Amino acid sequence: MREKPLTLCKYFAEQMKYRIFFAIFLTVCVLAGCQRGRYYTFTGYAQGGTYTVKADLEGVEVPAEQIQQRIDAILDSIDFSLSGYNKNSLLSRYNAGEEIVPDRFFREVRALSERYRALTGGAFDVAAGPLFDIWGFGFTSDSLPDPARVTAALAACKEEKVLNFNAIAQGYTCDVVADYLHGIGVHNMLVDIGEIYCEGLNPAGKGWTIGVDNPVDGNDTPGQDLRGIWQSDGSACGIVTSGNYRKFYVKDGKKYAHTIDPRTGYPVQHDLLSATIVAPTAAEADALATACMVIGTEQARALIESRPDLEGYLITADTIWMSDGFAERARGTYFPQK
Questions:
Q1: Which residue, 3, 51, 157, 168, has most beta carbons within 10 Å?
Q2: What is the pTM of this model?
Q3: What are 271-293's pLDDT values in tens digits?
Q4: Which residues pair with 326 in a beta bridge?
């Protein structure tokens, strides 16, 4: 998901020649006809992709280049803690059987993960790392395990010796960056690190607009093929889409999606293609979007409707469902009506 690109206003274009920017990845964007505010865009590389942070620095005393450096430092620290691909991270060392001293990030994500495991009845479970590995969606390249290996992996999950934070780490990272921006006085922001946290207003003085990708096989570039546009009301929230249309493989004519049910040990077989969740934090949206893909359409709908602080958008091959709150924020003609 990505917000639509911003354009420079004439005033800013006239003033740009007098400004000097020191951060390599720093750009400044303000919409045409824009209101008061100093909106900066910080970009860089993180967690196997790129990140974008848009923030209104009006009234913020910290220099922009220092903010860029701090964001990069936060992302580096989280990579050292939670990455399963960084062989020197705390997570990788833990999974290798090494005794580690968990840092703040490791402790917080583990606690959050346990909370969401309990909330979803085990549909979200970071201890299911052995299952992701044997099906080829974790940190190994295995695939199509026999039933005995699935049974052994389920037993290993109960021991919690191999963890996989992929289904919550990006959302959690958004929240950590947002917390830093709060600390220096930022109130209008969009943090996009694969998943999204947004708060306040964009440079046009409106809620942030987020594209929801069309969940079809082959749509591998976020923002390239959109199913619709959602616009925030200015409240702080995370918005995350999880789906089975990017990570899968086909073997002997059968599609095996990356969504593994931790309760059974096998890839899900229902018809839910994607689940978009709006929650108070990006970590919660991330975890619950994953859980919805595990439990399927009807149970996902029940979960969303059971919480007044959640909104959701579920897409199957034949139907769509939007919570009332999500429907109120849907924009344009892309979203089919309920």
A1: 168
A2: 0.83
A3: 899 999 999 999 999 999 999 99
A4: none
